[in-house]
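To whoever is on call:

I kicked off a structure prediction for a single chain this morning and the downstream step that reads the tokens threw a length-mismatch warning. I double-checked the sequence; it's 76 residues and nothing unusual in it as far as I can see. Pasting both halves so you can look.
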Amino acid sequence: MRLSQFWTAVADEFGPAIGRTLVHDLVLGELGDLTAEQALAKGLDIRDTWLALCRATDVPEPRRHGVGNRDPKPGH
């Protein structure tokens, strides 16, 4: 996943304003108590950050592959 795809997926799933707020403010325990913004700034994997954000906000699994990305491979 590229950073541009991350932001497209965030905007599509949550809307641009709420999405940016979540990325900036929501602390993600599974990423060491970082926000998604902090995780990305530290160089954590973009896809892992997206998936952590999805799990924290209860995005249904079928939508977790993100807009413009292929469906995940079986077992991922």
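Update from on-call: the warning came from a stale cache, not from the record. Cleared it. Sanity check on the structure: The chain has one domain: 3-63.
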